[in-house]
Amino acid sequence: MRINNYISSTGLCSRRKADELIRAGKVTINGVVAVLGATVNPADLVAVDGQTVKPVKTDIYIALNKPRGIISTTERQVKGNIIDFVNHPERIFPVGRLDKDSEGLILLTNDGSCVNKILRNENKHEKEYIVTVNKPIRPAFLKGMSAGVRIYNPVRKEYTLTNPSRVIRIDDRTFRIFLTQGLNRQIRRMCSHFGYQVVKLLRVRILNIELKDLPSGQWRDLTEEELRTLFELTGL
Hints:
CATH topology of the largest domain: Alpha-Beta Plaits
CATH class of the largest domain: Alpha Beta
Mean pLDDT: 91
Number of domains: 3
Number of strands: 15
CATH architecture of the largest domain: 2-Layer Sandwich
Number of helices: 7
Structural class: alpha+beta
Largest sheet: 9 strands, mixed
Strand content: 25-35%
Distance between the termini: 29 Å
Shape: elongated
């Protein structure tokens, strides 16, 4: 983090005022007078006028419209990882995953308790997707997807029956599906079971958080109202 951002995050002053303090030689990093543009690591000791300052921890909750090709991993060595893509000044991580070929809403936070509450399958928290497939949708396909699908789990080497789902046809090749599970590539595997291939998969809602008109590749902070409802739904 740049030194002016670091000082600002302590609540001492604005970034502009921090720059003034740095120019005046009043800021040190590990005992060395700081210069404009210097960066600070978590282990560094920052002082202003000889007094040590530390950032005030604030919980971060953001919604990202993930583009296709970005990978939901915190592994920075992985090309196209979501952390480098978002480039948030604080250390955050994704809540769950959205596979590389899928796009749409994904939440990121620095609050570990939030992650566990949202992801637990037994909580049956609803997520909504719009899916386009490669051929015309038949009534039997919609009925089968709604009833639950027996899909193979290559990790556990066993079959899993997905929860019943609400499925609504939008047009000839597009449907809306509401899931209460988070199995790996679940929708793609469900479609494949009936001989369909997913052409586009867009997640538009997680619990009460909606994608709406957030542009692809952009992120925003969750509103106070969204957080209040989210906390009520998840028991946070």
